[in-house]
Amino acid sequence: MTARRILLLIGLGCFVAAAAGGLVPLSAEGSSCGTAFVPSDEAAVDDWTTALTEGRGGAAEAACASLRSVVAVPIAMLAAVGCVPLVAAWSLSRPPESRSTSTQHPPSD
């Protein structure tokens, strides 16, 4: 297995793990919070109902916002880390002539 393929597998693995982590449903204080990047309306409805019946509100929605931000940061970082091996694999896939930074001039007679 070449270095390029290994880098591609690592980069794609990071992206797949980030996508899977971003799709996992979250819950806090007994209410659904949606996913890491897409909030659920259920938390807001639970807060409104709780505020009317028990005189307090905002706890579930605040807990969901906090939980989503705690989960979203590592997932975003994992996706960003996946970019590094993909860029390296792209760099390795280019022909060696285009990778060199020095300009080579033909010998003059």
Distance between the termini: 44 Å
Strand order of the largest sheet: 1-2
Task: Provide the residue-averaged pLDDT.
Answer: 78
Percent in helix: 55-70%
What is the domain total for the residues?
A: 1
Order of helices and strands: HEEHHH
Beta content comes to 5-15%
SS element count, helices: 4
Major sheet: 2 strands, antiparallel
Helix and strand content put the structural class at: mainly alpha
Number-wise, the strands total: 2
Q: What shape does the CA trace take? A: elongated
Whole-number radius of gyration? Answer: 24 Å
Query: Which stretches are low in confidence, meaning pLDDT under 50 for 5 or more residues running?
Result: none
Signal peptide: 1-19
Keywords: Membrane, Signal, Transmembrane, Transmembrane helix
Transmembrane segments: 71-92
Description of the structure:
The chain has helices spanning 3-23, 41-54, 59-93, 96-99, and strands at 26-28, 31-34. The protein has 109 residues and is mostly helical. It has one domain (3-93). A two-stranded antiparallel sheet has the order 1-2. A hairpin with a 2-residue loop joins strand 1 (26-28) and strand 2 (31-34). The mean pLDDT is 78.
Task: Write the SSE topology.
Blueprint: H1 3-23, E1 26-28, E2 31-34, H2 41-54, H3 59-93, H4 96-99
Antiparallel strand pairs: 1-2
